[in-house]
Design brief:
Blueprint (H helix, E strand, L loop, with lengths): L3 H40 L2 H29 L1 H25 L2 H28 L6 H29 L3 H21 L19 H7 L1 H30 L4 H16 L2 H11 L1 H22 L7 H23 L7 H30 L2 H20 L8
Helix pairs in contact: 1-2, 1-4, 1-5, 1-6, 2-3, 2-4, 2-13, 3-4, 3-6, 4-5, 4-6, 5-9, 5-10, 5-12, 8-9, 8-11, 8-12, 8-13, 8-14, 9-12, 10-11, 10-12, 11-12, 11-14
């Protein structure tokens, strides 16, 4: 019985974190669906409407490191609660902005909504902290990621129903979801962190980061795997609807293709977590990068010659992203003492937000200047270069 109680407590905390992820991912789905049209309605400008998503990305990027620092100082539960509280405050701000029809206030509020992105990403690290054994970290991360499936599917579908009642409806829902995420994350993340070695409490200086990257090779590998997997997915997924519209694909078919991709991003994450536990996170991460490269090649070929392959490539890209995020997150949450562990986790989330924003812009430029085929071949080449670094013999390995 004494042994069973800690296990039940861990399961309860993981369940609470899973609920937090459901609330956060549902909120993200709502926000991504509704903010751009709202910004256009408030401003009447296509350029201003494009800043809506950018404002959330910038907010997430700016808030990532302060939230990571707070997690080291005051605990993961407090940090998650603050991140979601900022998002809730931003959601409240959007309600006010829409009510008075102020697009500048709307963009400022969306900056704070970016805190929800930070909290959603950090939830998987909170799960990694509370499991009893390091070997269980990949599975814990993958289960939290899998919980995001519900939100990815539910969020966009709730927008229509909430908008029918009132144009404020989606933003009122956003506020409620982030408030629920505060409670669930605080309940799940507070408590002991069984398998983590704590060093003396001190702050890691920015000048120490290059040394830490060299010192913790596996964590650095996890950081690179996560960033490359995420950047490749953002670039190819973001431009896919534009490419499909150029091919005069019906809106219904585009929706089905994108839904298949979104489901692939989450649905098999527990399988990849078990594979990482069995074969090692490094092996699964590299396999994910290989699949990213294969997906990019398929999308490049499908963009001109065999369009029926396009859904296959985009679905495989979703699986590749899931493998990379699960394995990469597990590697940066391995046997690393604090505060170095928190630094790697903060760098990972910051890198995801920044690389996502940068590659989204670059993908648009390549698409406009050349084609989707050129974009896909470019991503395949980037992935190949990174894989070459990983697969070099140990004596000459550059990572």
């Amino acid at each position: 019985m004494p042994r069973r109680r800690p296990r039940l407590a861990i399961r309860a905390r993981l369940t609470a974190l899973g609920l937090a992820q459901v609330f956060a991912s549902t909120a993200a789905g709502v926000a991504l669906t509704v903010v751009t049209p709202t910004a256009f309605r408030l401003s009447g400008s296509g350029q201003i409407s494009g800043l809506a998503q950018t404002s959330m990305i910038v907010g997430a990027s700016v808030l990532t490191f302060p939230i990571a620092r707070l997690a080291q100082k005051s605990g993961r539960g407090t940090a998650l609660a603050v991140a979601f509280a900022l998002a809730a405050g931003g959601a409240g701000g959007t309600i006010g902005a829409v009510s008075i029809e102020s697009w500048p206030l709307f963009l400022v509020a969306l900056f704070l909504v970016g805190g929800g992105t930070v909290g959603g990403l950090a939830t998987r690290f909170a799960a990694a902290d509370i499991v009893e054994k390091p070997a269980s970290v990949p599975l814990a991360i993958s289960l939290i990621l899998w919980a995001g499936t519900i939100g990815a599917l539910l969020g966009p579908n709730l927008v229509g129903q909430m908008s029918a009642a009132s144009h404020l409806g989606p933003y009122q829902l956003l506020l409620i979801l982030y408030m629920l995420a505060i409670a669930a994350s605080f309940a799940g993340a507070n408590g002991k962190r069984p398998h983590i070695a704590f060093a003396a409490k001190r702050r890691v200086r920015l000048s120490e980061i290059p040394m830490l990257l060299r010192k913790h090779r596996s964590a650095t590998q996890g950081l690179i795997i996560t960033l490359v997997s995420h950047a490749a997915m953002i670039a190819l997924m973001g431009m896919a609807p534009v490419h499909l519209s150029h091919l005069q694909t019906s809106a219904g078919v585009v929706g089905l293709i994108m839904s298949a991709h979104l489901v692939a991003m989450y649905v098999l994450s527990p399988v990849f977590g078990m594979l990482a536990r069995w074969r090692g996170a490094g092996v699964v991460g590299v396999a994910g990068l290989i699949l990213s490269g294969v997906s990019a090649v398929i999308l490049a070929l499908a963009s001109t010659n065999t369009p029926w392959l396009f859904p296959v490539g985009l679905t495989l890209l979703g699986f590749a992203w899931s493998m990379g995020i699960v394995a990469g997150s597990a590697l940066v949450s391995g046997k690393i003492p604090e505060p170095e562990r928190g630094v790697f986790q903060g760098l990972t989330d910051l890198g995801m937000n920044v690389s996502g924003g940068v590659f989204s812009v670059l993908a648009g430029l390549v698409m406009a200047a050349l084609s989707y085929e050129a974009l896909a071949w470019t991503i395949a080449a980037i992935v190949l270069v990174v894989l070459g670094g990983f697969l070099r013999p140990p004596r000459t390995r550059g990572f």
